[in-house]
Amino acid sequence: MKFEMQKAIILAQNINGFIKFVESQKNKNNFRIDTDKLYQVKLLIEEFKFQILADELLRINQFDWDGKYTHYLVDQFQQGINIIDEYVKNNYNDLFILTARLYTLKNLSTTFSKMA
User: Fold this and answer.
1) Rounded Cα–Cα distance for residues 7 and 108 (Å)
2) Distance of CA 40 to the CA centre of its chain
3) DSSP assigned state of 91
4) Which of 108, 113, 115, 114 lies closest to 16 in space, CA to CA?
5) What is the Cβ-side half-sphere exposure of residue 66, based on CA atoms within 13 angstroms?
6) For residue 95, how many other CB atoms are within 10 A of its CB?
7) Is the whole model's pTM more than 0.90, yes or no?
8) What is the Rg, in whole angstroms, of the alpha carbon atoms belonging to the chain?
9) Which secondary structure element, helix H or strand E, spans residue 13, and what is its range?
10) Could you tell me the pLDDT band of residue 87, with boundaries at 50, 70 and 90?
11) How far apart are CA 99 and CA 77, in angstroms?
12) Rounded to whole angstroms, how far apart are CA atoms 44 and 107?
């Protein structure tokens, strides 16, 4: 179960990294990214409560493995990330910079669903 805990912690750290990356891009005057569409991604992150999910994943997997709750949190995260991924694909020309991080997050989260 130590391996499962580590996967959950890595996923939570990557979720936090994605949130910080979107924030950092929002604060820059970047000509490559449409700020309105990036703001929509930020709103989706807040709507699906990614920060709370990441904090909970870190909290419950810090000392002990709770498989049922971890899988519930990952399922909640996957619902949000799939919608964000679809939005980024539909607006690829303006949000292409997010695709690598989305790819990483989706692959990390699917490692949990394969074992369920």
Assistant:
1) 8
2) 15
3) T
4) 108
5) 13
6) 23
7) yes
8) 14
9) helix 2-27
10) very high
11) 17
12) 19
